Amino acid sequence: MEVKGRIIDLIWALEKDGFSEATIRNYSKALEMLIKRGADLLEPESVKEVVSCQETWANSTKTLVVAAYTKFASLNGIKWNPPKYKSSRKLPFIPLEKEIDDLIACCGKKLSTILQVLKETGMRIGEALDLEWIDLDCERKVILLNRPERHGNARAFKSLTNS
């Protein structure tokens, strides 16, 4: 129970420090995952052992877990020498435009609409889902993105279609 309270303290500290909601959620999940796998968060060597034994985790996952625990340790005055994991960047799968169009065509009205917006604008899904009616300028056929994610810039998208 004591550790759960300390995780809540960490969440509160991250919120006060201006960390994004996604980062806070990921750090919280990472610490919960460590506990579930048998790590004692008050013992750094226990955490290192649990992380190093996770053969199915990608290095990027291990990096995230180490970052979350580093913040937890810092907040709780726990001395810890974090292990270093180097994650490799992979090339993303980019479907053909015809494949995207086929996917959009076979979806329902709501999903196909959001997929079409993503295709034509390059918005992130969270940005598109956060759009409001005031962000649509039907006369000029423009979509305004006033709440970008991940330190992005506000921008406007001119419609590519004639409809």
Describe it for me?
There is one protein chain. This protein is mainly α. The chain folds into 2 domains: 2-75, Orthogonal Bundle (DNA polymerase, domain 1), CATH 1.10.150; 97-158, no CATH class. It has 7 helices and 3 strands. It has helices at 2-16, 21-36, 44-52, 59-75, 97-105, 109-121, 125-129; strands at residues 136-137, 142-145, 155-158. Strands 1-2-3 form a 3-stranded antiparallel sheet, with no helix packed on it. Strand 1 (136-137) and strand 2 form a beta hairpin. Helix 2 packs across helix 4 (59-75), helix 3 packs antiparallel against helix 4 and helix 5 runs antiparallel to helix 6 (109-121). The radius of gyration is 21 Å and the shape is elongated. The N and C termini lie far apart (58 Å).
Number-wise, the strands total 3
- Using only C-alpha atoms, the radius of gyration works out to 21 Å
What is the count of distinct domains?
Answer: 2
The order of strands across the largest sheet is: 1-2-3
H/E series, N to C?
HHHHHHHEEE
Helix run count: 7
CATH topology of the largest domain: DNA polymerase, domain 1
Judged by helices, strands and strand pairing, the structural class is mainly alpha
Strand proportion:
5-15%
Q: In whole angstroms, how far apart are the ends?
A: 58 Å
What number is the mean pLDDT?
A: 92
Q: In the CATH hierarchy, what is the architecture of the largest domain at level 2?
A: Orthogonal Bundle
Shape, principal axes of CA atoms = elongated
Helix content, binned percent: 40-55%
Which residues form runs of ≥5 with pLDDT under 50? Answer: none
